[in-house]
Design brief:
It contains ten helices and eleven strands. The longest helix has 27 residues, at 254-280. With 310 residues, it is of the alpha/beta class. It has helices at residues 23-27, 30-36, 56-72, 85-91, 155-162, 179-183, 200-207, 237-249, 254-280, 298-304; strands at residues 10-14, 17-22, 43-48, 77-82, 96-99, 123-126, 144-147, 169-171, 189-191, 212-214, 230-232. The strands form three sheets. Strands 1-2-3-4-5 form a five-stranded mixed sheet. It has a three-stranded parallel sheet with strand order 6-7-8, with no helix packed on it.
Length: 310
């Protein structure tokens, strides 16, 4: 086991201890956290949602696993950060919860603003090639950039899917610090799943000033989308292509889209910032994505991680 083999979380503040994690990264690894964290230790744990809690089966698992966690860590305070108002209504009956979409914690300085004018691609879709991302809805877009890898266990699905995009460009991976540049090359971004979480790439599109072709969905990605910067497509490839063509022909000032996103996101981020500051008794810096589900330098892991214990 590596010295930097850490559990999926980040310590925002050491004294008093404030930890952040995605809900199932923590709750499905309770035994590992139980080994690594003293059961009588006082800490505050903020949990972000990686999948829509508006689905009854997801909410029930969250409720049951959270009850188990509360028994294991009786001195802990658990706070859930919901991605949508609907999730707040579901969760408030069994846990402290606030509306704070995880896209609100994207660092705007990481994302360049798109330039006005004609773009290299009509659309970009940043998404792992997996069934719930519904890539088939993008098959009639003429000038498309697909960015996303695939799971080895879904390789057959990937091969079948990518064969339908012979005219598109596919990039298996783009380093996170360069993803904004690739977004800026497109006239719009795609968000095509029916259910997931808040979809980081959707927030990244709008921070770059790029509008979105969206489908109706559960998960919360709509929460921080400015109304003038996205269009709902029907669940057909023809409708998605038609809405992409709308953004190609009717561009919006990128700075207006970015500012519209920040107007919606900033109050949610500030709510969490104030809450964390009140718990810590000082101002705590909130890093990009709260430093969870993203790459960390070794010294950052050493200072802010919880080491896994065999």
């Amino acid at each position: 086991m590596s010295f930097f083999d850490c559990l999926p979380c980040f310590i925002l503040n050491h004294s008093p201890k404030i930890i952040v994690s995605f809900e199932m990264d923590f709750l499905r690894n309770l035994s590992a956290f139980q080994k690594a964290v003293p059961q009588n230790e006082k800490f505050t744990l903020f949990l972000q949602l990686g999948w829509s809690a508006e689905l009854p089966e997801v909410a029930n698992e969250l409720k049951n696993r959270l009850a188990e966690a509360e028994n294991i860590f009786p001195e802990a305070r658990f706070i859930i950060l919901a991605n949508s108002p609907g999730e707040v209504e579901v969760i408030k009956d069994f846990c402290e919860v606030y509306l704070a979409n995880h896209n609100a914690f994207l660092d705007p300085s990481r994302y360049p603003l798109a330039k006005k004018g004609k773009r290299k691609f009509d659309a970009v879709y940043i998404a792992r090639i997996t069934p719930f991302k519904r890539h088939f809805l993008a098959e009639k877009i003429n000038n498309l950039h697909l960015i996303g890898s695939y799971s080895e266990k879904e390789k057959d699905y990937f091969m079948q899917t990518i064969s339908n995009f012979s005219e598109a460009r596919w990039s298996q991976k783009v380093p996170s610090f360069f993803i904004g540049r690739k977004i800026c090359e497109a006239a719009c971004g795609l968000a095509l799943s029916a259910v997931e979480g808040a979809m980081f790439s959707c927030g990244e599109y709008t921070l770059c000033g790029v509008p979105v072709v969206n489908t109706r969905n559960l998960g919360g990605r709509d929460t921080l989308l400015p109304e003038f910067a996205f269009r709902y497509a029907e669940e057909t490839a023809d409708s998605v292509a038609e809405n992409v063509d709308h953004w190609v022909r009717n561009p919006v000032d990128p700075s207006e889209i970015r500012n519209g996103f920040l107007k919606l996101a900033t109050p949610q981020k500030e709510l969490v910032q104030d809450l964390i500051n009140s718990i810590a008794g000082k101002k705590v810096q909130l890093p990009h994505k709260l430093n969870i589900r993203c790459r960390l330098l070794p010294h950052t892991k050493l200072l802010h991680g919880i080491r896994r214990i065999k």
